[in-house]
Amino acid sequence: MAEYTYSGRDEKGKMITGLIEKASENDVANFLLKKNITPVAIDVFHRQASFNDILQQYTKRKKVSDEELVMFCRQMYTINKAGLPLMQGLESLSVSISSGPLQECLIDVTHRLETGVSLSSAMGYHRHIFNNLFLGMIKIGEETGKLDNIFAQMGVYISRDIETKKSIKSALRYPSFVLSAMVVALFVVNLMVIPAFADMFSRFDAELPLPTRILIGTSQFFVDYWWLVISILAIIIMGLVAWIKTPDGQFLWHRLKLHIPIVGSLVNKAAISRYIRSFSLMLSSGLSMNKAIGLCADIIENEYLSFQIKKIKEGVERGDTLYRTHKKSGMFSPLILQMIQVGENSGQVDTLLMEVAESYEREVDYDLQSLSSKIEPILILIMAGFVVILALGIFLPMWEMFSIQQ
After folding, report:
1. Do domains 66-158 and 183-406 have the same CATH topology?
2. Residues 19, 5 contacting (CB under 8 angstroms)
3. Rounded to an integer, what distance in angstroms lies between the CA atom of residue 258 and that of residue 298?
4. For the packed helices 322-329 and 334-346, what is the interaxial angle rounded to 10 degrees?
5. Are 349 and 288 in contact (CB under 8 A)?
């Protein structure tokens, strides 16, 4: 929606001016004609943003959650299944949901539909809510007249994505908490505990063991230059974040993520599973193979894998088979390659890939459930090393002083 200034003449020839919010200039003209006003000039109004407007722009929630999208898909499935007119259904839906970005989006989509554009084109103005896969599937639904099935499939697809993300967060919650606690403990020990023991040891005027001298030196550095430590850490973190946001940095980081011990294989399987399910879903809906692979490359959340999928698309466009192009990428297991080959020979690529996707998702669920048990031994070893170094540094001089006194 945008704001427009208009001027026109009514039935008596009187000049009428005003400000109105509509989706396009055609909407403004149609509105004026309905009011028996002949448009003379229609211009986009550029409002001077106030401080409150800028503040609201940054504080107002713009993102639509996956849960809201699932509910939207289910409601749209019901509307289309019941045979309600699309604009009437969207108007009712925009009124029934709570105010927010999704409601604003649906109101705008409804206005655009009134101008004669298709649903996929109207949704295309809100790509921050509907990704390429969603828009591509809606377009297929419009062409085939099966919007209800498309919305049902997208609801299931997004629901599976939600479950996978929740499982990953749940599996990483405990290791993240332990690592955070260790970092806090490291600062507390260096800033408060070790200085107290260092003060006590200095009174005995005895030569301290090497581990103790290292601990005291490290602690003294933290106490004297804590601001420098925090500054260096902040610069490193901000530098890494800025580098990752660059195309080359993002590409390399996404490639490195796939090779992180324990977690890398899980990230790779989750991404491959999403690609296979998306590819199968689009093929079963009637989308061409080249278009389906291109959309999969756009929606996958890993730039390195996206690059490999685009190479698969280029190979298919050159006339190569799905099996050979997927094998050349080196991304897929023998099971997937075998299923692709069998699917090509039998003409059932979408069906077989859906079975592979479900098999991969079961593997991802199993890996997520066992992730904590794989990480716990590493965390225990790190904590044990931390305790041993601390114990040696503090208790060795105490034992030596005790033996000297005896």
Report:
1. yes
2. yes
3. 18
4. 170
5. no
Nearest one of 95, 118, 121 to 106, comparing CA atoms? 95
DSSP E strands in 180-225: the ranges are: none
Instruction: Classify domain 183-406 by CATH architecture.
Output: Up-down Bundle (1.20)
Domain boundaries, the chain: 2-59, 66-158, 183-406
CATH number (1.20.81.30, 2.30.29.30, 3.40.50.300, 3.40.50.720) of 66-158 reads 1.20.81.30
CB 304 within 8 A of CB 251: yes
Q: Is 293 exposed, middle or buried (0-12, 13-18, 19+ CB in 10 A)?
A: buried
**Residues 343, 93: Cα–Cα separation, whole Å:** 40
Which residue in 392, 403, 387 sits closest to 206, CA to CA? Answer: 403
93 in Cβ contact with 79 (< 8 Å):
yes
Rounded distance between C-alpha atoms, residue 355 and residue 351, angstroms:
7
Q: Could you give the 3-state DSSP secondary structure of residue 14?
A: coil
Residue 273 and residue 264 in contact, taking contact as beta carbons nearer than 8 Å: no
Q: How far apart are CA 391 and CA 30, in angstroms?
A: 81
pLDDT tens string for the chain (406 positions)? 566 787 888 887 788 787 776 666 777 777 778 778 888 888 776 655 444 544 444 444 467 888 889 999 999 999 888 888 888 888 888 888 776 788 888 888 888 888 777 888 888 888 888 887 788 788 878 877 888 888 888 888 888 888 877 877 777 787 788 888 888 888 888 778 788 877 777 776 667 777 778 888 888 888 888 888 889 989 999 999 999 889 889 899 988 988 888 778 888 888 888 888 888 877 877 778 888 888 888 777 788 888 888 898 888 888 888 889 888 888 888 888 888 888 888 888 888 888 888 877 788 778 877 777 778 788 888 888 888 877 777 777 777 666 555 5
Measure Cα distances from 22 to 28, 75, 89, 122, 333 in Å.
6, 26, 20, 14, 52
Q: Which residues of 71-99 are buried (b: 16+ CB within 10 A; e: fewer)?
A: bbbbbbbebbeeeeebeebbeebbeeeee
The H-or-E segment that residue 17 falls in is strand 15-22
- For residue 227 the two structure tokens come to 């601001």
Is 232 within 8 Å of 221 (Cβ atoms)? no
What letter would DSSP give residue 192?
A: I
Q: Residue for token digits 């649906």?
A: 106
